[in-house]
Amino acid sequence: MTATVTVTMNNMLEFIKEKQDCWEYLRETDLPIFIYGMGDGALKIMRVFEQYKIPLAGFFASDEFVRGHTFEGHLVHTLSQIEALIDEFVVVLAFAAGYQSLYDRINEIAKKHILLAPDVPVAGEGLFTYGYCVENAEKIQAVYDMLADEKSKQVYADVINFKISGKIDYLNNCTTPKEEIYSEIIKLGKDEVFVDLGAYNGDTAQEFIDACGSDFRHVYAFEPNPKNFRKMTKNLPADERITLFNGAAWSKCGTIEFSANEGRMSRANGAGKKVEIPTYAIDEAVTEQATVLKLDVEGAEREAILGARRHIAGGTKILCSLYHRNEDMFDLPLLIKEINPNLKFYIRHQLYIPAWETNLYCVQ
Predict the structure, then answer these.
(1) How far apart (Å, rounded) are the C-alpha atoms in residues 322 and 330?
(2) Rounded to whole angstroms, how far apart are CA atoms 319 and 291?
(3) pLDDT tens by residue, 301-357
(4) What's the pTM value of the predicted model, to 2 decimals?
(5) For the chain, first and last CA: distance in Å?
């Protein structure tokens, strides 16, 4: 780190308390390290282990998943089997926990053992390390300074400290219920026009409809995955005020190659089977002014924002995911502010390990 950067960091990012990346800790510890979980998350973590030359002692999984399984050449154990043989070890969480019982189970393990949940991006490359924060200090500080309330600043600080360290106490500290969003930030009135980008199976659109008491003007829902789109058509009510699009939100209208078999995580340039789907610039696809705009498009948020400039400049309320790409934590708020500097910016984190469901909310 140069002297210039050191001075900059001394004057900025005082809310970042974690200076050691979780990967550095794992490389330096003398304790054996066990990955909790199997699948894509474990593979991503193993690749970083190889990069940092972090030794791996093995894997364990929940009792119901251990039936003589092996993963990447390792026999998968139960936690109790490891505890019977080893007194002290480090647990590295390799899957997402988004419901209360699993969240509680992970926190119980964390009371007995050192547990880290490394942050690896859903889309894009690189890692959210302390060095990455240094490189982007001005942007991160700019977002922190423009947040509208102290709670948002605390959530932003906690999530960044979590991303660096992998310590789940930071997420425990900043988790708030989803109901708070509609009651305190995105306050809905009558005659709302809701544009749902990344509508999945219609779950968020239904939340909006319920929150409005079905008293809304129109819902426009965009979902690129054909399977998810079919589910959405079944789940949402037949109503002339609801218009569904089987396509992706993007910066311009056209077509794009898309991974069609990744479920909720389906995205442009993802893995798996590819299909060509239509793309929609929301400024062209939705002619009336949106009053509520939701963006959860698996790493394509920047493109979707660029395609919705008119709606954002017109003052739509915004709900936007901040967790798919490393740069989302600062690039997306700054882009939206550039389009409409009159918006107020809030950040909240809902129950999830890792820092998924960390979202930006913007209102006039």
Answers:
(1) 8
(2) 11
(3) 999 999 999 999 999 999 999 999 999 999 999 999 999 999 999 999 999 999 999
(4) 0.92
(5) 40
